[in-house]
Write a structure and sequence with these properties.
The chain is α/β, with parallel strands linked by helices and 566 residues long. It folds into 4 domains: 44 residues, no CATH class; 153 residues, Alpha-D-Glucose-1,6-Bisphosphate, subunit A, domain 3 (Alpha-D-Glucose-1,6-Bisphosphate, Chain A, domain 3, 3-Layer(aba) Sandwich); 233 residues, Alpha-D-Glucose-1,6-Bisphosphate, Chain A, domain 3 (3-Layer(aba) Sandwich); 127 residues, TATA-Binding Protein. It has 19 helices and 22 strands. The strands form 5 sheets. A 6-stranded mixed sheet has the order 1-5-4-2-3-6, sandwiched between helices. The longest helix has 31 residues. The mean pLDDT is 94.
Length: 566
């Protein structure tokens, strides 16, 4: 049978199994129009559990998020849990969703499939932040958690996060086990919410989360620190507002036009607080209301962006690493158990390691993604006191074994208030840290690769970069090349290359886990210095970093067309 015949057979089989009328008609139309190129795109690259679970566009076929792909993934989860034994089914699965297009119906599919498979379900009371599912798994002693969300992706996307019994996102080999079962899944038996296995959670689960975080981050007395907060049209608004109020902040301004969930994200070109300009609406609100601090959660509230008002009245948007340094410093001030662990990923700043060493706190470097960061201390039977990655993800309390933008926001606001009482600011604290530990200029950029073979092109480009590594970047010699696919320093193998620049820094190149693009992370480091010398050292480091990143990008752009042509 020819490849075309095989493709059409796969499409017909999918249509027969698909429960959604609209999706079936979409595929039937593609068949009728002989659009084999589009059909091949949809059927040649099915969704896989990547850095943050399944994630893809809302469209029919295996490459998209749709009712059938969600059913199959959930059947894979059910078979994995049954493989673990009958107790796993009894302990059940916490199921939650955000407010994106498709999330409610995908949530219903997950619940129905699990109930039909004889697995208990603890369903969240409505669209709520992702960290509450991670919290709920631990709090309720469940076997797993499923969250329907695409986090900060564009409106056309949705996704599926899977947590294990530890409340952390799954890692190998569980992802492969679930995918193997999903790939052979037949029509599922669907259950009803009238089943005794179905448990509808109420707001008590949110209250328990709030109680935990208030016990950690409550102020000693109420504060009128002027805070501007935005949930980016996502589901974090009410929970984060309640948390800030409960820990003692009485002067919180909400960004009204972004506070109500809206899956189209109408005021944002891209609903990610990392993106340039993403905080513009919040900054305008902060200026109108004379706010000291801006806090922003992404649409599922697992990330935190922030901006601080400087002494001249302007606002400075903090980089992800800077927020990480500040949160680490705050936790050290409040007391950290020396038997716990600080952790960050291979693409984040190395300053945290210096901070941990100075405080005699064990430190771990992990692969990219919180599924690895959350586990940083477990092999050593330690808890994670603090973990972060530069992409605005922070874990400040081990009750949530994932990144949590809400508790991180409460912790950052508390630290800002404590510094204000000392006539200092978060910006002053960053100056102190970099003068003491050295300037750490950090930045990242991306090279997007379009087309159906984007991921394969990226893989080949990274292989070519490894085979033809540059001898220098931006005028700085490359003294060591590390192939991450071979494993490095005890880490599991992963796609990527690290180019060390001696004592000056490093560049890490890796494929994005959620989008068809190559990500380049750079860091330029200097020695400690006086506060007076800090501005000039920063300017020099950032100039060097810009040259290094520019050289790396040029090299990749040279490689991508050449690799594509092979």
């Amino acid at each position: 049978m020819s490849s075309g015949e095989e493709l059409h057979a796969a499409v017909h089989a999918w249509i027969e199994a698909d429960p959604d009328d609209h999706d079936r008609l979409e595929l039937v139309s593609l068949l009728a129009n002989n659009d084999n190129e589009e059909l091949d795109r949809r059927f040649s690259s099915p969704l896989h559990f990547g850095t943050a679970g399944l994630r893809g566009p809302l469209e029919a076929g295996p490459s998209g998020m749709n009712r059938l792909s969600v059913r199959k993934a959930t059947q894979g989860v059910a078979s994995w849990l049954h493989e673990l034994g009958p107790e796993a089914a009894v302990r059940g699965v916490v199921v939650g969703r955000d407010a994106r297009h498709g999330s409610e119906i995908f949530n219903r599919e997950v619940v129905s499939v699990l109930l039909g498979a004889g697995i208990a379900v603890y369903e969240m009371p409505g669209p709520l932040p992702t960290p509450l599912v991670a919290f709920g798994v631990r709090e309720l002693g469940a076997s797993a958690g499923i969250m329907i969300t695409a986090s900060h992706n564009p409106p056309k996307d949705n996704g599926y996060k899977l947590y294990d019994a530890n409340g952390a996102q799954i890692i190998p080999p569980v992802d492969s086990i679930v995918e193997r079962y999903a790939s052979v899944a037949l029509a599922p038996e669907l259950g009803e919410t009238s089943s005794p296995l179905h448990h509808q959670l109420d707001e008590a689960i949110v209250e328990r989360y709030l109680e935990r975080m208030v016990s950690r981050f409550a102020l000693s007395q109420p504060s009128d620190l002027a805070i501007c907060y935005t949930p980016f049209h996502g589901v974090g608004g009410n929970t984060m507002a309640a948390l800030l109020d409960a820990v003692g902040f009485t002067n919180v301004c909400r960004v009204a036009e972004q506070f109500i969930p809206d899956p189209d994200f109408p005021t944002l070109s891209f609903p990610n607080p990392e993106e340039p300009g993403a905080l513009d609406v919040a900054l305008a609100c902060a200026k109108r209301h004379d706010c000291d601090l801006v806090l922003a959660n992404d649409p599922d509230a697992d990330r935190l962006g922030a901006a601080v008002r400087a002494r001249d009245g302007s606002y400075r948007v903090l980089r992800g690493d800077e927020i990480g340094w500040l949160l680490a410093q705050a936790l050290l001030r409040w007391g950290v158990d020396v038997s716990s662990v600080f952790a960050t990923s291979i693409v984040s700043s190395s300053l945290l390691q210096r901070m941990a060493a100075a405080a005699d706190i064990p430190f771990a470097t992990t692969l990219t993604g919180f599924k690895w960061i959350s586990r940083a201390g477990w092999e050593r039977e330690r808890t994670l006191a603090f973990g972060y990655e530069e992409a605005l993800g922070y874990a400040v309390d081990d009750a949530v074994a994932d990144k949590d933008g809400m508790s991180a926001g409460a912790a950052l606001a508390r630290f800002a208030e404590e510094l204000r009482r000392e006539n200092k600011s978060l910006l002053d604290e960053i100056d102190h840290l970099e003068s003491h530990f050295g300037v750490h200029a950090v930045e990242s950029l991306s090279v997007r690769v379009e087309g159906p073979s984007g991921h394969e092109t990226i893989t080949r480009a990274i292989d070519a970069l490894l085979d033809n590594a540059p001898r220098e970047l931006g005028g700085i010699a490359v003294n060591k090349v590390i192939d991450l696919s071979a494993g490095y320093d005890g880490l599991p193998p992963t796609d990527g290359v690290v180019l060390h620049l001696g004592t000056s820094g490093r560049v890490t190149v890796r494929p994005s886990g959620t989008e068809p693009k190559v990500k380049i992370y750079g860091e330029i480091v200097s020695d400690s210095c006086s506060l007076e010398d800090l501005p000039s050292l920063r300017a020099n480091a950032r100039a060097n970093l810009a040259n290094v990143l520019g050289s790396t990008r040029e090299r990749l752009v040279e490689l991508l067309p050449a690799v594509e042509a092979k």
